[in-house]
Amino acid sequence: MQKIEPRIKQYEDMGLGLFIHWGLYSQLGVGEWTEFIHERPQAEYEQAIHTFTAADFNPKQIVHEAKKMGAKYIVLTTKHHEGFFLYDTHGLSDFDVMHSPAGRDLIKEFVDACNNEGIKPFFYMATYDWHNPLYKTDFNAYLEYLRKSVELLCTNYGTIGGLWFDGNWNKKDADWHLDELYGTIRRYQPDAMIINNTGLKNMGKVINPEIDAVTYERHTPDAVNHGDASKYVAGEISLTLNQHWGYAANDLSYKSPREIIENVAHSRKIGANILVNIGLTGTGAIPEMSRTYMHLLGRWTNMAAPAIYGVRPAAVVAAGNTKDFAVTNHLNTYLFIHDLQVVGNDNVVLGGEGINLRSFTGMFGKIKSINWLDNNAPVCFMQDTKKGALTIDATGFTYGTDWVVRVARITMSD
């Protein structure tokens, strides 16, 4: 039997998080990898520190918007691969926000805002670093620099939700001194989640016994690696709204709201958390498109909330070629129903008219009633408790609505 640490259970209960990418690159508005991909000379690129004002960074507003979106935690980039710190490094580096016109510790402001709204603050930390020459010339010395930068995050901001590392994939065969790095976190933040993004080629891989969640960057797996017999680990999907993590003004290739909602729903199906990412503008504001997507997602998460938070995949399986699935908590089971259409009439036929049967197996308990979460309307059903078979009439959406994925609550008989 795998042991589930309390911090991992609490993390899984949160389910949905907001990922925020912000740094010097945001001022250029062409993505977070612009220094590397566009081959910008380092000395020229790093002059962007002198125009970094954070004039529109309003952490209270950002956290409030995240909460309305349904996020229970936020992962913010404290340092991306460009090497610029959004916090006061207390002399560890002069390439930090205190040496910019902003002149204030933005991570402290972020943490304070999170604490005020009951949101868990998580810190992204890039391990792959383009700024510090030690990364190439004296890797052991660089690792001590990295450890000290993490120690500052663990000691100066109160209790945090976790650390989210990214970049070990750049030196996949190197000794990253993870025992020392993770030991520092455990010393100061014993209840913090430790997550290390394994990259596109090693998704779902546990790289160290202290890892608490495996990652699936830009990928929606059909199952999560929950570790071996010694320790249960969580899983996490991360999702961009368009093609970039950082702000890219001319990237108009946004995913559809349907795709975003279906990905959030799929994360519930496989028992993984999901991070939905936005990039702040160069001055620290939420771009209007991102704000709109956050509002749209928030409408759905508010409706489906009982089936999103504190739930786990149920041993109830949809029959046939369908994306439908079920989740459960200690009170109820919830059915997620996909690809429904809107009910019209004789003049406007929209495809949702008539009977739409969806079947499931593994439902042995006697059901009292089933109701849609969006309008509490009853759902007709047939059940064979001996065979564990359940069939519902998944009625189409009422004209004027389309929730993309519809959710029904099953109430069991006493």
UniProtKB/TrEMBL annotation:
Record's keyword annotation contains Signal: yes
Assigned EC number: 3.2.1.51
Keyword flag Signal: yes
Domain Glycoside hydrolase family 29 N-terminal: 8-303
Domain of life: Bacteria
Keywords: Glycosidase, Hydrolase, Signal
Single Gene Ontology MF annotation: alpha-L-fucosidase activity
GO term, biological process aspect, one: glycoside catabolic process
GO cellular component, one term: lysosome
Family: Belongs to the glycosyl hydrolase 29 family.
Function: Alpha-L-fucosidase is responsible for hydrolyzing the alpha-1,6-linked fucose joined to the reducing-end N-acetylglucosamine of the carbohydrate moieties of glycoproteins.
Protein name, per record: alpha-L-fucosidase
